[in-house]
Structures are given as structure tokens and as C-alpha cells.
Request: fold
Amino acid sequence: MSIATEFAAEAHATESAPEQAIEGRSQWYLTWRRLRHDRVAVGSVVVILIITLLAIAAPLFVSLTHHPPDSTYPLTGTTAAGLPVAPGVHGFWLGTDDVGRDLFIRILYGARVSLFVGVVTTAIAAAAGVSMGLIAGYFGGWVDAVLARFIDAVLAFPYVVLALALAVVLGPSLPVIIGVISFFSWAAISRIVRGQTLSLKEKEFVEAARSLGASPWRIMFLDILPNLLAPVLVLATLAIPQAIVFEATLSYLGLGIQQPTPSWGNILAEAQNFYQEAWWFVVFPAAALLITTLAFNLLGDGIRDAMDPRTERVFAAGRKRRRRGRAPARTVAVTAAAGGPEQPSSAAS
Amino acid sequence: MSVGAGDPPPQHDAGVAVGVPPGSSDAGTDDILVRVDNLVKYFPIRSAELFRRTVGQVHAVDDVSLTIRRGQTLGLVGETGSGKSTLARCIAGLIPVTSGRVWFEDRQITNLSRRKMQPFRREIQMIFQDPYGSLNPRRRVGSIIGEPFAIHGLASGADRKRRVQELMERVGLNPEHYNRFPAEFSGGQRQRIGVARALALRPKLIICDEPVSALDVSIQAQVLNLLADLQDDYGLSYLFIAHDLDVVRHVSNSVAVMYLGRLAEVGPKAPIYEAPRHPYTAALLSAAPAADPESAAQRQRIILVGDIPSPINPPSGCRFHPRCPKARDLCAEAEPALEPRLGDPDTHLTACHFPIEAGESLAAAGRRETP
Amino acid sequence: MSLLEVTDLRVSFPTADGVVQAVRGVSFTVEAGQTLGIVGESGSGKTVLTQTLLRLTPGGDISGEARFDGIDLLAIPDEDMRRVRGAQIAVIFQDPLTSLHPLFRVGWQISEMIRAHDKSVSKRQGRALAIDLLGRVGIPQPQQRVDDYPHQFSGGMRQRAMIAMALALSPKMIIADEPTTALDATVQAQILELLLELQRESGTALIMITHDLGVVADIADEVMVMYAGRAAEKGSKHEIFYEPHHPYTKGLLESIPNSSAGADRLKPISGQPPSLINLPTGCKFHPRCIYVMDRCVREEPPLVAVGGDGWHRSACWLPPAAAGLGSQAEEARRKVVNKARDGEAAQVAASISGSPDAEGQVIA
Reply:
């Protein structure tokens, strides 16, 4: 047995409220407390908040710069050669695009599209994924057999190809994009929820609920679902950047958000012809995409670590040991815990 | 086998009336709270392929009959794979039975639909082994204990909170901890939460599935005392499952010993512990470590050979015969009936062709060392 | 000289929630061929204690000394420690499945374990040794079973295989951490019998860690009772079971159903074990102790001799005369406690009054 895990379990048992705290401390509170100490996660939250605020405040910047997103400025916004102007020139903070539109404003409006698509598709995918996964996992039998095969089928689809085909057939529009991305996102969530449900329904507290006479729906939504929220939250946080990238990809290929409505994807699509003449045209929208997706991914990892105190504790132990320069001890302990015969000398295991 | 709920209960032949204290075997049938007739539970083993053919059966419980008397405790003893937990779940209606019947008072409660079972849920409650796994970690204690009221629509709002806090007080918890989460309690306190939940609907029977085996010794005694007090106060009946023979001896009026899905021996506590008839009972008793060095040194241990066989292909004849120090040819061929042996009263039943006689020592016979 | 001499061992773990004081100054010795039983409930530090001896507690702050056969286990380089583990000190864990590698044959694991310590053993010899060892621990048909995978073994057989592995290099000491807890009673009896028999044959010292007083009564020579990271009481098996001095030891013995057979009510120890992050003041047992005095709240009692020969030691302020389960000892205890309490403020009594079952005194 690994001393780290046993110890973590032991410490968890002793991790109880002091006598004066009558009010219970929920899992969320404990998660939040751990998350607060994670500088990367806190940084990610700050970045996401800033991007969100900027997106919300986009019209404010329009009134400030007097540059609506769709307006072209052929005189001030393009050079004599008809190329985009550089950042800072003629009041274009981040320069302009090929037809002389304000790149900064367009990136802000692109952020609105990206965040909206990311959040809405993830919400739809999470709701659908959780319901399907819960039903498949809890009822089992033929219900599960049918749903699980369906999930497998969705996951097996070459989704980019299918998304392209759908966008062509149905015509590119925001609802179609949201529909397509949601359809391909729920299955991954569903599969994990199904697996978790399968293990949770064997827990004694579910049996206890059944022995009290609780209905299957009550058990699914009051007993099992609260235990799924943590992994679903992590999955959802990680699904948002995927959806954002997915949307950008579709738009980049001309099958997502259509001009003149700005989207990071279609800005990049236009910018690719100008990367030698106007670096800002490529770099700024790409950076926006990168920073946003990175922030969401790092936040997702942070939440996952914060929800699983075991990994956090092992890390804490690792830090401690590194500080004292006794690194080799860990290798030994871990192999002993795993009982690998490669290290038979360790603990006779 | 199925019997309509409207059928009259079967005749209560004294031969299967377990749990009757000596001298009161003529007590009326209305003393019997639960009666299990020839209960069988097989779990199918399915292949891993697409259509999941049934390729075998786990004989978890095989033809078990017993009764639980009102206000008394029946101890159910057995090792891993003996089927004791499966039997409990069949009685509680948590899993469908393969055949046989369970009677609660005068009503047949086998394989009822969830709706028809609902009134009986209020009468039969369970306490589980794992104080960590049996409480939903994401719900507050008040909501966990109040769950039975919510499900059965018995109390809500302030009334429910008041009743939950009364229950908390009754089982020795601080009612002010109403809004705490299970993780903020120690193992013993969590088990009290489980007791409070089981008690909420004022059931007549509580099935205790290893309620103290996950607890430390000093805490175990607290919970056992609580269970005893509640039995006195509310006239509860217990089906008490445990592998710790000392604990079962302390709490039970009568004892049933299971081995590999079958009853080996049943009867009042005293004869089972003092003069066991079945060699398995005797071996189990001698194997239990006693916290007393002197008696440990004096005791003649019956060391059984090997492990419990698989319940998928249980041995022929008497299921204990491959490990039994007294086994003879007959034991492999014929299955012994569960009946009074060697002039025992009809409350003490043993399923053994060659039961242990008074003064007989098995320890010598048991020295069949493994090769 | 003793085979193992542990002096003032302390282990603590820094965590996000505070410092967990798992072991707080434990000293003991183990003689060659002797069995020391370490009894304690969950969180008493018994497992951390022995794992620290093998340097298997990463992340822990460790102080103290542990001399095994002349070497300080806590000071030698990791490379040397690896040679001690397995060869000199072997371990048997509660769950053999976590210690046996699931993807390798049992015999191969035993053979590799031998060959890792002794390069001169050939594969063929290693296999022969593995068969011999499996036979010694009572596994039927070892020639065939040597090629089985761990999952083909039953729980009892896995534990036997673990014991075979522990014996492989003829260690001077075996540490068995709850080796029978996961097993059924009849199988537990087999394993204990086997351990005793093997110990008689080979003269190996054994440290048996368990929460089960019954196992200790069976197998131990000396017993150490641990509570909240310290030794509450140490002594011979006879002293611990028949002349317990520490109220915790006495409480443990009395809370077992068997010892009060016939009585309607058991005598539990009230309250809960303390949190190792937030330990009580003074004697760590005082919030649960029925003999608590003012001094117990203020000062932690040292482990002092309470028996004639000085080997029976207890960490309790009660006088040596208070050892035992009989009425005489009870009288001695009552006398001291009443005398102490007479002179004390009533608040001491108030701190321990209330229902003995009432929780909330210590939230573990």
C-alpha cells in the first residue's frame, strides 16, 4: 500500500471542522479553498475574466474609437499600397485588416462569438451528456447497450468531415455551428458520466436510497448527480476551449461565422495571405485564441487537482522533498507501493 | 416459484421455526415477524460477448429457510462467499429472488413491484457496513437522515428538521451538526447517522449488515450499545450479519451459520456457542481469536484445510465436505438435511450427517495439514 | 544488544490543513526471535511508525534513531537501505494484491526477488527456491502453482505467497502490517498458525501490527499499545492483558464483547480518537478518560515503569498500584482520582461529565 495514499486518506479523515464551525463545509468550499492557493488557476481565472469583460465591453470600445466592427476605412485604414496599417497608426490600436477594418474591435467582437459558442455548446453538451450517461449507466441492460453503442458511434465519426458536410448542406449559420459542435461534444462527456454512474450505483449509499424506497429518478438526480458534478465541471471547463477551437476551425474554413461578422477563425483565414506584410493581422487573433484556450485548459487542470486532494498532497510531499534534497527516497517508495518486481529489493514486495 | 400476495401464509411447521428461545417453542405464529421459505438466489454469469449468454450461475443463496421473531435478534454468521449479505438483500427486497418466498407478518413480499413494496420499505430498514460508502458524500447530514421522510412524504420543512434533530439526539449526535457533511464526522459518528436514517420511519425490522466491522474496537462497543438501547425502546427486531462471532454472541437471541449459500446450523445462541453440532460451526468458533492469552494458549484450534470453494461450482453433497475433518464418503454423495440432530430440540437444526457429539474433540481430527 | 532499537522516533507530515503528527516520540526494542505486537486503532500511528523504519514515508519529517543490527536505518544511504529491505527486514502487508504485481507469475516474482539480492542465483535455481518456499508456506502443488498469476490465487493463498516472499532471503526481522485483517476467520487462523510455525523454525523476529487484540493474544510476546502517535503502554503479553495500567488499554480490553460476556451492556470508551492535526493538551487520551485529573489536562505523562521488573511501562499519571482489571486496582485508581479531584476546581469534572456516549468532546 502506498504510504502516500494511505496517509492522504488518514489526513482526510482528520480533516474535519473545528468544534465551533457548526455549518458544514461543502466539497465546493474545500475545492475553492485549495484552488485559491493555485497561482496558475487563479491567473487563468483572471485572464478569462478579462477576456469576458473585454468581450462584453466591445460596444464601449466602439464608442471610444468610433470604429464599428463592420466599417471599412479605406483612407485611414489601408496604406497607399492597399495593405493593412500597423498597430497604433491612425488610431487603430492593433492595426487594421486587409479591407481597413479596426482589428482590435473585430477581435473583441470575435471574442463574443467564441465565448458564446464555447459556453452555449458546452452547456448543451453537458446537459445532454449527463442525462444520457446517467440513464445509460443507471438503467443498464438494453438501454445501456443501445445508448453506449450510439455514444461509440458518435465518437467514432470523422467529425471534422461530417461537420463540414453539415455546414455545407444546412448552410453556415450560428445555430448550425452550435448544433454541430454540441452534437460532437456531448458523447465524450456522456461516456465518462456513464462510467462514473456505473461505479456510483454500486455504492452503499445508492443501495441505502433504494432500501428507503427512492425512485430511480430520485436516485439518479439527487444521489448520483451531485457526485458527478465535480468531474462534469472539469470536463466542461476543458470542453469550452475545444468548442472555441472547433468554431474557429469551421470559420477558418469558411463554413462557420460568415463575413462581415467577425470571428477569430475568419479573421485568421483572411490574415493568412498577409502574414509577410502585416504580422499583426495574424498574431493578434491567433494570440487571442491561444490565450483563451490555454486559460480554460489550465483552469480545468487546476479544478481537477483541487477536487482531488490526493494528487495535491502527493505534490505537496514532492515539493517538500525536493526542498530538502532527498529525491531518491520517492522512487523507492513508489516502486515499493506498486510492488513492481523490477525493484524486488524494496519492502519485499 | 411465485405466490400471489393474496395467498394465505403457509403452515408454520416447527421444524423451520428458528429463533425460538428454548421453552417457548409453542409461542404463537404472530410472534414471527419475518419468515423466509426455501429462498434461492442465483446470479447469472454472462459472457463478455455482444449477446451476453448466460454461461454459469453463482449459487449465492441456496434453499434457505428461517424466521425472525418480533423483538429479537437473529445473528447471521458466515465467511466471505457464504451468501449472508445476499440473503439480507433478498429479505430487504433490494434484489429479486430466484425462487422461494419471504413473508413479512402475514404478507408475501417476494419480488413485489417498487410501488407495491413501498409500504414494506417503512417496516424493513438497513444499516450498512461501510460508514464511508453508505452516506452520500455530497449531501448534508440533515438531508441524509431526512431522506426517508421526503421519500414517503411524511414530513417537510421545519417539521422534518425537528424530527431529524430528534433522531440525531437519539443516536448520540449533536443536533447542531444538521448542516454538516458526512466527511466531517468520524467513522463511529457516521455509523450513528446510518442508524438514525434507518430509524426514521420506525421500522419493525432493521437488517444490520456488518454494522460494526469497519469500526475500531472502542467505537464498536458504543454502536452496539446504541443498537441494544434502540431495540429495548422501540421493540425492534434485528437481522444482525457479522463475521465476528463475539459480536454476534453479544447481540443475538438465536444464530444461523451459513456456509457457501446454505445454512449449516441454526438455533438458540447458547447451544450453538457452547455445543456446536456442525463441524464448520466448531471450526469457526475455534478459529476466532480471543483477546485472552491464556485461553488462546489452551485452546485447541481446528485448522481447516484450504479455502472456501467457489460458489459457481459448489461441491457435491455437503458443501463443507472438502474441508471437513469428519468427512466420509456419504458427505460427498448426499446432501444432509437441516434438522434436529442427536436429540436436539426442534429449534436447533444442523445440516450434517455426522454431527459432533457431546465431549467430542475435533481438534485432533482437524490436524490434517496441507500437503 | 537488541536486534532493533528505536529511540524517540518522531514523524510528522506537513499538509495543506496543518501538520499531522503521526508518530510523537516512540521508543522500543525488538529482540531476535521475539514477537512484538503493536496494537492501535486507526490513526494511532502504528503503520507510519513501521513504514518509517523502512524509509517508506516520503514527505515526512523524521527525527530519532532506529538501530537495526548495528546500523541506523534512518541515516544510511538509500542504496544501503534497499539492501536492508527484503534481505534483512521483510514486510507483509494487509492486502497482498497491492504488493504482488498482477502481470507477473507468482513464482517469477519470488525468484526475481531472490536474484536481485543474490546475483549468483540462476533462474533455474530461483525457480526451485520459489517452489520450495511456496511448499513451506502450505500452498498445495507448488510445482504447478509457481506458474500461476496472483489473481489465480485465493486471498489466503496470496497472503501465503507474500509470506513466502518475505521468507525468501531469510530476513532477521519480519514486519507484518495487519496481515490477516482482510481474511476470513478460518483462513486467518491458518495464516497465524503458519507465521508462528515459521518463526519457531527460523528464529526470525516479528513485529505484528494489528488492531485486533485477539491476534496479539495469540502471537505476541511483548505488546505495545499505541494511541495518538505515542506508546500508551508497553509490557509482556501477560501484563498488557491481565495487568493493564493505562486506562486506554483497560478500555480496549473491556470494550470487546467477549470479555464482558453475559453483561447486557458493553463498556465502550467514550468519544472519538483525536485529530492528529489538532491534538488535545496534556495526555492525548484525557478527553476520553474516566480517570482524568487536572494534571492530565496540563502535562503529558512520560512512559514510566509500573511493574516490578521495569519492563512494564505506561504513560499515565495513575500510580503503579492502579494496574489490573480487578476491584483492587479499581479502588487504587478511584482513590487517587478522588483525592486529586477533591482539591481541584469543579470545571475539571465538568469537562468530562455528560453522557459517556455523547460525541462532540473531540471531533476526530
In short: Confidence is low (pLDDT under 50) at residues 1-22, 311-349 of chain A.
